[in-house]
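Problem 12. The chain below contains 527 residues. Write out its predicted structure in token notation.
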Amino acid sequence: MKSPVRVILVLLVVIFFLAMSLNTSGNTTYMGAEQKVVRSAPIAPVANSSLSFKAPSMSSSTSLTGLNGTWSSMLNYTISKLNGTNIPQIAKMFPNFNTVSAGKLSAGPIYTSAPAPMGLASYGLKNESGTIVPYTYTTDSFEGQININDVSEFYPGTSSPFSFSIQFNSVLTGVTIAGISGYEYWIQNVAFYSSRTHELTFVDNIWNFSSPNAVINNGTFHSITGNVVPGVYYYKIGPTYTVKAPFSLTLYLNATNIAQQNSVFFNYTLTNASLNGKTGTFTSSYDKVQFNSHPSGSSTSTPDAYFKVSGNTLSGTDAIPLDAELDLGGPGGGSTADFNQINATLNMYYLDSSSKMVPVGSAYDSGSATGETSSGVSAYYVGTTEYLFTGPSFISGLWNISSASESGYSKVSGTIAPGSSFVLIGRGSSFNSSNAQWAPTGSGGSFITRLMPGTYSLEVMLSYHNPSSVHSISLSTGESQSLGSISLQSNESQGIYTPLYIEGSVDLAQLAISGNGLESSPYILPG
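Solution.
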């Protein structure tokens, strides 16, 4: 006979996954046999069912103009073209279609709250005497570095619940196709990582950003080693390494001309990795793409293409800014990643006019161009280095955007009971659910996070319990505050308003209204 405790645990997990599938639009819920039960963020993606698109002609290899469709309407078109294909999800790194056309300039990240592409982004904006002003720079080489000291990720709404993507993205402008200059292509150099299997796979994508309706066809390229999905985009899946934290990853975006063809290279350096019995640091290029720039027999030289970051100009999509971003996101297909634990640093450099690699002049902690998002990541900065730590994900300016007093971090810690409760942290002296973000908790209900200096409020909540709040947590750089133990009062009338996560008999006993877990006296849960 099965133990009543085990039966209840199975039922709770099934109920939770059903709830997640009902609250997740556009994602399929998968239940892997090896998944462990952890606390995750009670957040659902934006619904896309209302989008529509008038399909363009696929006979053209250039930018498609004169159509009535908008940038956001490309989502349904793209999904319809990819349905029925055998393209792995990790190879489908969607742009951010969930933004309106005629986007805003000088506004920073498109995402206003998590889940968002948390990471490091350069927008061509800077703070001058309290006013955010735009600027523009171009380069033919970007370098994005991430050092991961510790990481654990779990989001049940994807086919790869323990996996996430590390994306280095920027728009290549001034691309020449068939002798005509001025095209724009979104270049993505991506590492797909599993915190369970410790496998890291390289993947790249190229999307046409020349207009809101632009696509890629076979005629776009002169030479490739990957795959064109006609009428959609280009991708290639690179090598797979075994690598455990701590490790360092550097991704490169390099543009040049090869035999009069605009070209891009996808390079990387990975430390503490293993491949084919060899262990150490690996530096390589896994893809080279040459655009079809120079018509046969033409005597005209092809101008250089270059990556462009500008707060003055949108990309040809009329929606996505011209930025450079090193993001953490879900494992492809516009998915989300929830980080239960993370400790990492990020840096971004570009090749300046004097051929020196220099840090980007200003930064935010969220990208805009990609559709893959994340939460459970708290960001702060010192100098021109961004630090990521377990905690709430707030969209914030970093160096030369925020004030100097916001540099560094403050530490907040505490313990909650029941241990399966959720901790939400918001900005301001009183708790406001509209700007609150999930702060992951550890074993036994302990939590610790690092926050940029400021004033915060906190709320602990759990189904069938009264929520409890802590207001006006004022933090300055270098300060540590312990909130002690926060215990929730059981109240069955509160009903289900959060997911229920059970890690073991202790969590189950805290949720039960009667019983002691024995076969003769099983735990009885509310409802």
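Discussion. The helical segments are 4-22, 74-82, 505-511. Students who got a different answer should revisit the alignment rule from Section 12.3.
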